[in-house]
């Protein structure tokens, strides 16, 4: 059966379908109260976001293998810092909607970057994709940080806290697992709403979101 076999009734059908689609699209466009946010995020996450103001969070990264915190000592980086060490205080800048971040040491001002051999290095200028990581929340609730330039290469540390060559890293290895911890003594983030927004993206089922959603479903009896 070829396309030439199409009869007028069939054409009319196609025409009606198109009209219906058009109406749907129009209705969607008109409904300003419910933009398709997920789609929006997906589209924008592909590129670096140069327009929005950068959000900066302050936290420490606790390494699952070393049991200590990531510290930035200028060009050198390792994961042997105690909780609250000034070198473990990280300023984490969001790069896009999509939990891509630049991580800078508060004390030294160096960014955590990855060189082409998979080595972690501290750099003062962190504009390149080698200094951007995607935060991935794993099923075990640890966070992995995948480099944006070298896709598939993760930030990783050995048990002794030495950086592990990223060329050999996989998401399921303990060496790439981290826990984000507030910096000791740091007040909660300057803007609580931003923090909540961030948590919503990364932790879809938190106790907090559950608690805030429940009352909406409850009806008066
Ligand atoms: C607009 O979105 C709201 C909230 O999702 C929904 O209740 C409403 O039915 C929508 N209106 C139209 C015209 O689609
Ligand atoms: C991860 O965290 C969620 C929310 O706190 C919890 O429900 C879940 O059991 C945790 N998963 C693991 C493997 O610990
Ligand atoms: C980590 O850096 C500190 C400070 O420079 C140093 O004393 C320590 O030996 C380093 N540890 C490792 C495992 O590289």
Characterization of this structure:
It is a single chain. With 221 residues, this protein is of the alpha+beta class. The protein has a domain at 56-201: Trefoil (Trefoil (Acidic Fibroblast Growth Factor, subunit A)). Helix content is 24%, strand content 24%. It contains four helices and ten strands. The strands form three sheets. Strands 9-8-5-4-1-10 form a six-stranded antiparallel beta sheet, with no helix packed on it. The longest helix has 23 residues, at 8-30. It is elongated, with a radius of gyration of 23 Å. It binds 2-acetamido-2-deoxy-beta-D-glucopyranose (3 copies). Residues 140-141, 205-206 line the site of one 2-acetamido-2-deoxy-beta-D-glucopyranose (NAG). Residues 1-29 form the signal peptide. Keywords: Growth factor, Secreted, Signal. It comes from Scyliorhinus canicula (Small-spotted catshark). Belongs to the heparin-binding growth factors family. GO terms for molecular function: growth factor activity.
